[in-house]
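Dear support,

I submitted the protein below through the web form. The confirmation email said the job was done, but the results page showed an empty box. After a refresh the structure appeared. I'm attaching both so you can tell me whether what I see now is the final result or a partial one.
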Amino acid sequence: MIGRIAGNIVISQPPYLMVDCNGVGYEIEAPLSVFYDLPAVGQQVVLFTHLVVRDDAHLLFGFSSIAQRAMFRELIKVTGVGAKMAIAILSGLSAEEFSQCIADHDVATLTRLPGIGKKTAERLIVEMQDRVAKLPTESGIPASVGGGGESTGSKQAQAVAALEALGFKNPEARKMVKAAAGETVEEIIRDALKAVSA
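What the results page shows now:
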């Protein structure tokens, strides 16, 4: 199991990034919240990772803290929740915010996330209720991410692609990005997601 990656960022295009570790480029999928604090391309980053091995692919997921990765690992154990949906959940809510939703039985907030219907939200609350209390907190072991990255190409197009990867339809994603403010791709995405959850 690959549990931690430390290296220089080669590509940063949410929800994917590539990290060069001694000449080997690791392709990593991460929640949008990870991209908010990434340093610029070429700078060093440390991410905690989870490797998923399938018949057709080896998929590496990256997280900015042990707590975020622990939440991801618990989420993918929930019936009907795969890695893609877990990434979408952690893109829209921090580990603490998600834990609070579970504690408060907040179905409304969960259903605002892409791909989460009422039944899935209720299942998450039931199955995660006993697990969230045992998870580490964000202040446990943080990764060194800091900085404020910028990637190449059209910022709006990258933001739309990232939202589509989270489950939003193209027209909806375009509308969200058009109404969002921000200087970087990450800021645009963050603003667009805030508007949806408001």
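Response: this is the final, complete result; the empty box was a page-load delay. The first helix runs from residue 32 to 36.
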